[in-house]
Amino acid sequence: MSGAPWTATVLTIFPEMFPGPLGHSLAGKALARGLWRLDPVDLRDFATDRHRTVDDAPFGGGAGMVMRADVIARAVDSVQARGAPGPLVYLSPRGTRLDQRIVRELAAGPGIVLLCGRFEGVDERVLEARPFRELSIGDFVLSGGELAAMVVIDACVRLLPGVVGDAASLEEESFADGLLEYPHYTRPAEWEGRKVPEILLSGHHERIRAWRRQKALEITRARRPDLLTEAAELACSAARDRAAPPLPRTAEEA
Ligand SMILES: C[S@@+](CC[C@H](N)C(=O)[O-])C[C@H]1O[C@@H](n2cnc3c(N)ncnc32)[C@H](O)[C@@H]1O
To answer: For 43-153, where are the E strands, in sequence order?
Structure first.
């Protein structure tokens, strides 16, 4: 591998939460192999009082506390001065909703600097004063940005070269081509009276590919019609036509 590995720098008041789940399975093995780096940074190290305070009461009143702009800016400037690579991202329910296109874009870069909010969030001025991009992992509110940071990192890491053993599996999964994924089956071939679709036992790779593409289209149309583009519809009707010929019943017919 050439150059520095993809690096996730995480600004948080709970650095001990990391790597957490990212230390296991695919991401954990890749971390151990040096395919990516994780740098959790304690925001409290950038407080200036002896209580290591990072938050204060909101101007204008209201419930909860707000993370201070000066503390966050010092942390951001410090990690960037020592070369933390990649764009600055504040995890926030107000942000652009994360999707696979954004994940691909982030994974293709040198890394990411993630700011995890707590309490009511962060002082707006630091989001203006530093080039933060805001990303949300969905339309719900978490109690802190750490789990959201883990989601972003996990989604990026599995796209890094060498992390997933068979890179072909990344090409066929949900969102890779704008569609949700087709259904999977494994042994036994019959379970509780339910049989595996016959075509998957046929050994006809081209027809299996076409059948899977057709299923991907049906599932996407039923569950996420918003994902369907005209191009995907056209590609899928071509696939349906290729899947249409009847399956040979005997090896001689094949
Ligand atoms: C309790 S939340 C603050 C919510 C904020 N007051 C609001 O209403 O938008 C605390 C922190 O959790 C993180 N967070 C919560 N929900 C999130 C989401 N859907 N996506 C990404 N980060 C989230 C953010 O970092 C946020 O600053």
So the answer is: 55-56, 66-67, 88-97, 111-115, 132-136
